[in-house]
Amino acid sequence: METGPQDGKRHLSQINVTPLVDVMLVLLIIFMVTTPMMQEGIDVNLPKVEASAVKTSDEPLVISIDRERRVFLNNKSFKSSELRAKLEAIKKSGGNRTVLLRADETVPYGIIMSTMSDIRKAGIEKVGMVTEPGEK
């Protein structure tokens, strides 16, 4: 006695993964496009200059100084006196790191240079300044 279909054809019992792959590729593209836009930070008015971009292979640390002269490391507030110790600890645990310094254009030059000095004294050699593109 035969228990299959009566018309002589056999049914395939495999899952069609093509729609799943299509959906996954669309989600991948959406995440690839939206991820760079998700980087938020401290609101600072960056100075406008013409300069080339800094090329780096690892994820940089971002130090921000706002117009009230508050110092932030990756969006977490620190006292200026605590910054160097924190950077030294990061340097010991992570090896060579790149630091990007974002400072409001109203912050005095001396405070920016003092922060850069703390970065250098912590043993971090790769320091970049974040600016906005200037008008040509």
In short:
This protein is of the alpha/beta class and 136 residues long.
CATH topology-level name of one domain: Nucleotidyltransferase, domain 5
Number of strands: 7
Measured on Cα atoms, how large is the radius of gyration?
26 Å
Q: How much beta, percentage-wise?
A: 15-25%
Give the strand line-up of the largest sheet: 4-3-2-5-6
Poorly predicted regions: none
User: Helix coverage percent of residues?
Assistant: 25-40%
- Top CATH class of one domain: Alpha Beta
Structural class of the helix and strand makeup? alpha/beta
What's the number of helices? 3
CATH architecture of one domain: 2-Layer Sandwich
How would you state the average pLDDT, rounded? 79
Intertermini distance: 86 Å
User: Largest sheet at a glance?
Assistant: 5 strands, mixed
Structure report:
The protein is α/β, with parallel strands linked by helices and 136 residues long. 33% of the residues lie in helices and 18% in strands. The chain is elongated, with a radius of gyration of 26 Å.
Q: What layout of secondary structure does this protein have?
A:
Elements: H1 18-34, E1 48-49, E2 61-65, E3 71-73, E4 76-78, H2 80-94, E5 98-103, H3 109-121, E6 126-129, E7 132-133
Parallel strand pairs: 1-7, 2-5, 5-6
Antiparallel strand pairs: 2-3, 3-4
Helix pairs in contact: 2-3
